[in-house]
Write a structure and sequence with these properties.
InterPro entries: NOL9_C (IPR057570). It comes from Myxobolus squamalis (Myxosporean). This protein has about 160 residues and is of the alpha+beta class.
Length: about 160
């Protein structure tokens, strides 16, 4: 729920016909060319054969790393004959510009489709996509009535 509120569409969350599937389907994704962006994985090693799966429906950090060119930990992993994934450990100087959700990965053309409320100007500065361990379940975006909000008020 908090991630949905991040998209500043809280009024849609309280609609009686709200669906997470429809919500994310209405958002226009931004395109990132995989060959021009660097991926940084938090606290885990990634199997080169599982990169595509590790990206899809993952909540990611969109970073600007001014030290990126100085890093020597760059690793290139060939995905297919068309493009490589650039894997890097981002520096302590990285600036988080916002969060996004990788909605899809086009493996034929090497494009990541990311939905985010981050401005286009900030997205143009993004040079690292930080990937953690927060993935949405695959069936979350395919079920028709996948989420409902009750009239319960929570107190802390």
């Amino acid at each position: 729920m908090a991630f949905l509120l991040y998209f500043k569409s809280s009024h849609a969350l309280f609609s009686p016909d709200f669906s997470i599937c429809n919500f994310f389907a209405t958002l226009i994704p931004y395109q990132f060319e995989i060959s021009k962006i660097h991926l940084s994985y938090f606290n885990r090693k990634i199997d080169p054969n599982a990169i595509e799966h590790s990206l899809r429906l993952n909540i990611v950090g969109l970073l600007y790393d001014p030290e990126l060119e100085k890093l020597d930990s760059l690793q290139k992993i060939s995905f297919n004959e068309h493009f490589d994934f650039n894997i890097v450990s981002h520096s302590d100087q990285s600036i988080c510009l916002g969060l996004g959700l990788i909605r899809n990965v086009d493996t034929e053309f090497g494009i990541l489709y990311i939905v985010t409320p981050v401005s286009e100007l900030d997205l143009q500065n993004t040079n690292v996509i930080a990937i953690g361990n927060i993935c949405l379940p695959d069936d979350l975006l395919t079920q028709k009535n996948d989420f409902q909000i009750s009239n319960t008020v929570y107190f802390t």
